[in-house]
TrEMBL record:
One of its GO terms (cellular component) is cytoplasm. It comes from Duncaniella dubosii. The keyword Protein biosynthesis applies. It comes from the Bacteria. The modification N5-methylglutamine is found at residue 246. This is Peptide chain release factor 2. One of its GO terms (molecular function) is translation release factor activity, codon specific. Methylated by PrmC. Methylation increases the termination efficiency of RF2. Keywords: Cytoplasm, Methylation, Protein biosynthesis. Belongs to the prokaryotic/mitochondrial release factor family.
């Protein structure tokens, strides 16, 4: 049973959120932005119109989130008053309190995602490390984990490219994740992930260690301006592989994009290579590959900005095989994040996509340094 002090603290957190989010100003802002949609020629410019509607939707989401909290906390207060009259059970009070705290924490967490790129979708790439089949199997397990997390949070996902393993698992995959604040949450996953388990691929039943790297970049949308020099771009086409079907190995629908990039800050040159086999439609695959290129170029600019900020640079983890961000030790029933020291024994839950506690711990510790 909760205490009077816990009830008071819940009210204080609700009021603090109203101040932090400036809900009253956001309500006025929504009204002003909606007035802009009432002009007669509003839909004659679809791209600008859609951007305006998204802007309204984004502001309204903060208002709706707060009003849901306000409603839940008021119900909690009412139930508390009824408890004295014996009209509700203590278990009902506890359930309402837990619901209120969850909603408050979720909105507080989202409020920490203030950087421009946090609100974007994600290009999430997984590469298996050295170790053959074992590491390739681990990479496929991570792919499943992230797809499950995305599904549970209502994010739309598509596999842009998939390179299957020699015997099992995958060598690499690229997943596009679309939805509000996907990058803000999943940026915590950028790094090397280490698995320790008794390998099903080892005849002696030995405990083995495998690695896979996860690279997370913002998925740019039409509101982000990224300059692509078409003179530095070239295309190849190839036949997509697959399990079978009429078009497999007959139509060159797969595309390979090569972009000769020169870093404007360091002068270093590199070739950016992107393959896309997402659909059987070559023009669509080209469009998707171009979107990934814009995302990569945007991320390179972001990384430069981050490197200019000493506070962030001091807290960054290098993506190296010797500096994993998280360890998954199956036989010890333990998953531990080495940056925050948060750990859990619910290995099955984590592998089924329950990553919220890890994401929250990361943002609580590092989001403030990104301001």
């Amino acid at each position: 049973m909760i205490t009077q002090e816990q009830l008071k603290e819940t009210f204080e957190r609700k009021l603090a959120l109203r101040r932090y989010l400036d809900i009253d100003s956001k309500k006025i802002q929504v009204e002003e932005e909606e007035l802009r949609t009432h002009v007669p020629d509003f839909w004659e410019h679809p791209k600008e119109a859609q951007a305006q509607m998204k802007k309204i939707k984004d502001i309204q989401a903060w208002i709706d989130g707060y009003e849901e909290i306000d409603k839940t906390v008021n119900e909690l207060q009412l139930a508390w008053d009824f408890l004295k009259e014996g009209l509700v059970e203590e278990s009902e009070i506890d359930a309402l309190y837990a619901d209120a705290i969850t909603k408050i924490e979720n909105l507080e967490l989202r409020n920490m995602l203030r950087r421009e790129e946090d609100k974007l979708g994600v290009v999430l790439k997984i590469n298996s490390g050295a170790g053959g089949t074992e590491s390739q199997d681990w990479a496929s397990m991570l792919m499943r984990m992230y797809l499950r997390w995305c599904e549970s949070h209502g994010y739309k996902t598509s596999i842009a490219n998939l390179l299957e393993g020699d015997e099992a698992g995958i060598k690499s995959c690229t997943i596009n994740v679309e939805g509000d604040f996907a990058y803000g949450y999943l940026k915590s996953e950028n790094g090397v992930h280490r698995l320790v388990r008794v390998s099903p691929y080892n005849a002696q039943g030995k405990r083995m260690t495998s690695f896979a790297s996860v690279f997370v970049t913002p998925l740019v949308d039409d509101t982000i301006e990224v300059k692509v020099d078409l003179a530095l771009l070239s295309w190849d086409t190839f036949r997509s592989g697959g399990a079978g079907g009429q078009n497999v190995n007959k139509v060159e629908s797969g595309v390979r994009l090569r972009y000769q990039f020169t870093d404007p800050y360091t002068g270093e040159q590199e070739e950016i290579l992107i393959e896309n086999t997402e659909t059987r439609d070559q023009p669509k695959n080209k469009e998707n590959a171009m979107r990934q290129l814009r995302s990569i170029l945007y991320d390179k600019e972001l990384q430069h900005r981050l490197q200019e900020q000493a506070k962030i640079e001091a807290g960054k983890m290098k993506i190296e095989w010797g500096s994993q961000i998280r360890s998954y030790v199956f036989d010890d029933r333990r998953v531990k994040d080495h940056r925050t020291n948060y750990q859990t024994s619910d290995v099955n839950g984590v592998m089924d996509g329950d990553l919220d506690a890890f994401i929250k711990a990361y943002l609580m510790e590092f989001a403030a340094t990104e301001e």
